[in-house]
Amino acid sequence: MPLIPKGSLEELKISKLFPGKLYSCGNNDDFSLIHTGMHAGLLGDAVLYLKDSPCEKIILFGSCGLVSKKNSLAIGSLATPFKCYSWESFSDLLLDPDNEPRNFFADRDFLNDLLDAIQAQEAVCASVSSLKLEEERLKILKNKGIEVVDMECSAFFSASESAGIKAAALFYISDIFAKKPFYLDLNPALKIKLSLSIKKTCNLLRVFLGPPNNHTILRVK
After folding, report:
1. Tens-level pLDDT at each residue, the chain (221 residues)
2. Is 62 in contact with 149 (CB distance < 8 Å)?
């Protein structure tokens, strides 16, 4: 997780995060949580450091921005990228936005398992390095069919592939370009909706990552 929203640790049944040189980490009986901070390089490194560990599967759980309003997606909705464009370079996005970026993919089997347990919409994602430029490049994003934007997913997918770890990402939508941008406060009703969505999703993830015989399918709407 790049960020730890309020109440997430309690819902995930993780009592405490222990600080390290680069990351904080906590665990329960079923999984570990790494707090990486918001940066593609930091998150990518965290995955690479797991290469020689027993880790076989990993989920990126965080927020994303919705490129344009859709009936099926709104604030608090869940999206899971199956494909992610890499615009991690600030300079490339600034100076050469028409250049075709590389793209990386979730592990299809693991993604299907996640979708069986948690209702989310598959989406095309782009990872960018600038909150300002993502709005200025809105037309380019739409022309490529990009639906959601974050800052780490492409690094997460590429590092996971390199490390031989199955990877999937799950995002809650926290803002909508032009309509409800990240720099404007949400109204109280939307704040509550987003908070409840995050807490419910933490519970869903905890069940999904727990023993198979304890799985209960719940839905976030």
Report:
1. 999 998 899 999 999 999 988 899 999 989 999 999 989 999 999 999 999 899 999 999 999 999 987 768 888 899 999 999 999 888 888 888 888 889 999 999 999 999 999 989 999 999 998 888 878 888 888 888 899 999 999 999 999 999 999 999 999 999 888 777 777 788 898 889 989 999 999 999 999 988 765 544 444 43
2. no
User: How far is 27 from 177, CA to CA, in rounded Å?
Assistant: 35
Collect all residues with Cβ–Cβ distance below 8 Å to 177 and sequence separation of at least 6: 65, 66, 67, 68, 134, 135, 138, 149
Sequence-separated (6 or more) residues with CB below 8 Å from residue 40: 88, 127, 129, 151, 152, 154, 155
Taking the C-alpha atoms of residue 178 and residue 147, their distance in angstroms, rounded to an integer, is: 14
